[in-house]
């Protein structure tokens, strides 16, 4: 007996297996519609909803929420900073680098070596400018113009400039001191330049600390 060949009456569609799009669901907490990315997903992607829906994950969710809030506060604070704030932060970064750079040296003005070991807070050391920021703002971030100086000389003796110069010549040479004392082109730092200076000296301080710890 001759068998009849079976034939498909409708053609196969091209494209292979088609993945069915996920249907939207209502979040079990906030009731907002969302498209789930996993099977059995009951809440939307908001951390607060995950926290409320799954008590077992409360610690992790609270930490994640706190991290988001901290980052948001940091961003907002950064936006509120003025040029003066950025200048102050950059100067702090430069001064910290200078104090660490000169940690093995005595005071630039009086050769004293005060110790901070008995202090709970603060320091007996400053980063003193040879030419002050007010007199020569162009050199406020110049490391040749800034050296570790005891608080007494820097604050009580207004920089003790005469003695500062004597030891500065001995330390960096008369030619460089003459350059510091010479005329300098006026400089108006942009906020981006100030930020770059702050980042540069923070990185240099970090490297110095690594080297000293090794």
TrEMBL record:
InterPro entries: Phage_lambda_NinG (IPR008713). Pfam families: NinG. This is Recombination protein NinG. It comes from Pseudomonas poae. The lineage of its organism: Bacteria, Pseudomonadati, Pseudomonadota, Gammaproteobacteria, Pseudomonadales.
């Amino acid at each position: 007996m001759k068998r009849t060949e079976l034939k498909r009456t409708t053609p196969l569609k091209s494209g292979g297996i088609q993945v069915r799009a996920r249907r939207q669901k209502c979040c079990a907490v906030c009731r907002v519609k969302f498209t789930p990315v996993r099977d059995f997903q009951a809440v939307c992607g908001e951390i607060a909803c995950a926290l409320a829906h799954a008590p077992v994950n409360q610690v992790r969710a609270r930490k994640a929420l706190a991290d988001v809030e901290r980052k948001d506060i940091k961003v907002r604070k950064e936006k509120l900073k003025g040029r003066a704030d950025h200048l102050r932060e950059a100067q702090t970064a430069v001064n910290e680098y200078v104090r660490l750079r000169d940690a093995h040296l005595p005071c630039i003005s009086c050769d004293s070596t005060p110790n901070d070991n008995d202090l709970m807070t603060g320091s007996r050391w400053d980063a003193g400018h040879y030419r002050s920021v007010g007199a020569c703002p162009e050199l406020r971030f110049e490391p040749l113009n800034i050296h570790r100086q005891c608080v007494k000389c820097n604050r009580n003796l207004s920089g003790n400039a005469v003695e500062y110069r004597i030891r500065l010549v001995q330390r960096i040479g008369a030619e460089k001191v003459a350059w510091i004392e010479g005329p300098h082109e006026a400089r108006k730092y942009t906020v981006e330049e100030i930020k770059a200076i702050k980042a540069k000296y923070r990185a240099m301080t970090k490297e110095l600390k690594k080297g000293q710890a090794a």
